[in-house]
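INTERNAL AUDIT FORM
Audit reference: QA-55
Scope: verify that the stored structure record matches its stored sequence.
Auditor: D.O.
Record contents follow.
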Amino acid sequence: MNFQLKTFNELTTTELYNILKERTDVFVVEQNCPYPEVDGKDLQSYHLFKEENGEIIAYLRILPPGVSYPELSIGRVLVKEDYRGQKLAQQMMEQALSYITSELKETTVKIQAQHYLEDFYRSFGFEVISEVYLEDGIPHIDMLLKK
C-alpha cells in the first residue's frame, strides 16, 4: 500500500509542508471553510500518508487519548481530489485501525465525521453517538468504534 506512518518529529520538513498544504487545500479552500487548520495537535499525533510524485495524495492523523477526546481519535482524513474513487481512504483507514489495535493497544476510537461520510465510517464499525451538528458550517456527527 505504500503508506508511511510517522510521528511529528519523524516527518521531514518537506513532508510536513506538503501535509499542511494538502490539508489546507482540502479542508479550507475546497470546502470553502476558513478555520485554524494548524491547531497544535500535530505535534502529539501519528501521521499516516501516501505520497506520489512528491505530493501527499492521502492522509490522516491519529491523535492519542487526551489530545482531542478522552479516547484516541482519527482526524483530517483526506484524499487529494485527483485520486478519489481508488479506495485510498478505505485502505488508509484499515491500516490506521490495524496500527491502533495492534501497536497502540487501543480498543476505542472517537471521530468527528462529516455527516455525508456516515456510511463510510459505519463500514469500519463506527456508530453514531450524537445528533447532526454544524462545525464550521458543515454538518458533522460524532462516532465511536469499540473493538
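Auditor finding: record pair retrieved intact. Residues 4-146 form a domain with the Aminopeptidase fold (CATH 3.40.630.30).
Action required: none
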